[in-house]
Model the fold of this input.
Amino acid sequence: MKFIQNIFDATRPAVTTGALKTLYPLHNALETMMFVPDHNAHSGAHVRDAIDLKRTMVTVIFALVPALIFGIFNGGYQHYKAIGELANASGWAQFFTLDNFLFGAWKIVPMIAVTYMAGLGVEIYFAGRNRHPVNEGFLVSGLLIPMTMPIDMPLWMVAISTIFAVLIGKEVFGGTGMNLLNPALTARAFAFFAYPSFMSGDKVWINTTTEAGQAVVDGFSGATALGQYATTGTTSFGVWDAFLGLIPGSIGETSTLLILLGGVYLIATGIGSWKIMAGSLLGAIAMGLLFNWAAPHMVTEAQQNFMSIPFYYHLVFGSWAFATVFMATDPVSAAHTERGKWIYGFLVGFLGIMIRVFNPAYPEGMMLAILFMNVMAPLIDHYVVNANIQKRLKRAKA
Amino acid sequence: MSTEKPAKEALFSKKNRSLLTDPLNANNPITVQVLGICSALAITVKLKPAIVMGLSVLVVTTMANLITSLMRNMIPNRIRIIVQLVVVAALVILVDQVLKAFVYDVSKQLSVFVGLIITNCIIMGRIEAFSLGNTPWKSVLDGLGNGAAYGGILIIVAFFRELLGNGTLMDYPVVEWMGLYDLGYKNNGMMLLPPMALIVVALIIWVQRAKTPSLIEKD
Done:
């Protein structure tokens, strides 16, 4: 390690006072990533937790890893299942094969790399321009963005969506910690509206291209469970499969089980707000039960069928789990007050399920619900704080 | 200019020139005063309607400024808004008829937005703020400047929206001609949606403020 330290020491004068001043953020970022930051207290000492932004972000990354690895296997599994070349085995031996992993990794690892390059490129440019250290806000976004995309998304679209999200979603508001919207969902929303034929429908979720290069089956339908519900009112996927994640969908969203595992880790470490997650759970259940009650009054049979499914179906199909655990809990764009978190979380779940069922143009509503609630979060906080002021004023008068 | 006697102000004195050029940058009606945004969102999907719209507004602001400035000493203060409206409405009807006669297809695309020029805040704003208190020549310059500034922004926005959203410029298939589709390039559908017009305007404001530090608020 000594020689790396020497390189950093040798180049420090050049980037702090020398000609390469704009590269200082990059130098600083690499150095703190490889070594413990040598930040000293300059004034009086303050008692504080040793946790900083970097530890926070790395915790979220750890929470994401199980779902990501599962997504990589699932990408290969869905591909080989579609072209009829699944490994000759039964049970999980059919799923956790090297072929599945290699195929998934071959598609997904480049997406992750492109996202990090595009996003960090913008971040480092702005850090150099504004002379502040690169902060770690993008570490999580960079992993979240590919995990919310379909497996066949062209890399340049991933790059453009990422650049848009970092630029318009974050940097124009002042960078990490100042953004109104969740950057990862901004990227997804941009991709969704800019290139709808690559982000929705029944062709994008499973890669059906063989080694020879042509699609195997014409007219093969790889619709997600929610896509099937939106068109026919039923699904061909079992709830248990959906809970485990053996269904087509965006890369990281399919395995409810592993996402819950990540969620438990986030709650246990205190990084993710359990109030937001619980609120979203209650909201989704409330909307599901409301639909069950309203189902007989709907006109079309497909809608009646879709609305009368048990509420827990909504929790395992689609991206409710992923969105609730990793997107809604973004500490910057969510509500900040404790009571506000309940309201915010509840409405995320409530509106997400509502959009998913009622609007056939958007088979999944969690993205739109969270972005909408991101915008509403400051309003919720405003009223929560005001209510508290009123309460205390009343107490002071009495 | 220096050959002119100071008693009579030159046609293009420094002050008069600034009437023409100020709106183009430091006092731009769209990016600085944030007026006329609705039409900037609505008709900038393609370049051709944007150009026609820009020209129409240019003609209306200039003529409305000229006419109200000529009448400025005759208009009773209490009914001045009605008089202004009559002038603008008459001009808008004229423009609408001309468009229908000569560029019918564009006029179809612009549809209601030609008629809505009358509600464009820039026009009424310039009459109220400028031509009611200034000589005809200055008012014409002011109208020309503001109309051109409005049209200029429209054209910039429409350029990016048509190129990136539709792959064409003035309906000429530029992207196809460059052969980008064969490389896997796809048009960006979001550019055709109104929110993207707002974001493009915002990006223009960003660039403009970065280039003109005097526009940045102190606070």
